[in-house]
Amino acid sequence: MQELIENNILQPAMPTCWNEASKPHKFCPGCGHGVILKALGEAVDELGLRDRIVFGCDIGCSLLAWDFFDFDTVQTHHGRTTPVITGMKRAKPEIAGIAYMGDGGGYAIGSQHLFNAAVRNEKITVIVCNNSNYGMTGGQMSPTSLPGMKTETSPYGRDILQTGAPTKGPEMVAAVAPEGAYVARGTVANVRQLKGFIKKALENQLAGNGFSFVEALSGCPTNWRTNAKQTWEFIEKDMTQYFKVGELRPLQAKEG
Ligand SMILES: Cc1ncc(C[n+]2csc(CCOP(=O)(O)OP(=O)(O)O)c2C)c(N)n1
Ligand code: SF4
């Protein structure tokens, strides 16, 4: 990627698979969705996959990515992006299918699809943006809201005796996915590492090895009501304490 200088300001170049006409993008300032989609765009560019991608975005703030990329995109019903991309991949095995959603789409309304796709070892890549709340609908408690976290629907803090503990998506996927699956958790606080995880997830899918899953810890400053410093602190200190970053099911070395 080349960097440009415009008006004496260094401008990092956009991934070539981004749709320039839709920029500036529609996410709130400081939102992590744009960072995750930058890591995804760079991964697609580096792997030369642009013409093979079918990208599905969920209901939730991920739907704001419906025109984000210059590749085939489908916007699905809430929680249904995983089965839509599964169907496309089964019909056209040569594509690289990516299902992109929030933690509500992945771990609440779409959880049965996610975990059953993992059990079946579907050859698709699922990326979940974990921002600890339902962003699009105004900041309600989600499966990944932290213990004690104040949200619109847990104004006194999440009580895990009432609601259960926060969902650990990658740990759950890793527990049920057969051999060949790739599972990792990255964070928008380490974009290079996140891009590496996404690249491996795409490579694993294209090698036909199995289900490929990446969760990305992300920020929602609008609903968290945080400034830039507080947003990063919440991701780096609070979220990573509960949600451990790293590879849970690494790429398996090829035999022979
Ligand atoms: C079947 C259905 N149920 C509920 C909704 C309302 N709804 C829209 S987005 C959303 C939650 C989005 O949160 P998340 O999936 O975590 O994504 P985020 O917006 O945080 O990125 C909900 C509950 C809906 N659109 N459709
Ligand atoms: S509401 Fe939150 S998740 Fe949605 S675009 Fe704004 S900052 Fe991002």
From TrEMBL:
Occurrences of domain Thiamine pyrophosphate enzyme TPP-binding (ranges): 68-215
GO molecular function, one term: thiamine pyrophosphate binding
InterPro entries in alphabetical order: 2-oxoacid:Fd_oxidoreductase, THDP-binding, TPP_enzyme_TPP-bd
The protein, known as: 2-oxoglutarate ferredoxin oxidoreductase subunit beta
Coiled-coil spans in chain: none
Keywords annotated in UniProt: Oxidoreductase
PANTHER family: 2-OXOGLUTARATE OXIDOREDUCTASE SUBUNIT KORB-RELATED, SUBUNIT OF PYRUVATE:FLAVODOXIN OXIDOREDUCTASE
One of the GO biological process terms: cellular respiration
Top-level taxon of the source organism: Bacteria
SUPFAM superfamilies named in the record: Thiamin diphosphate-binding fold (THDP-binding) (SSF52518)
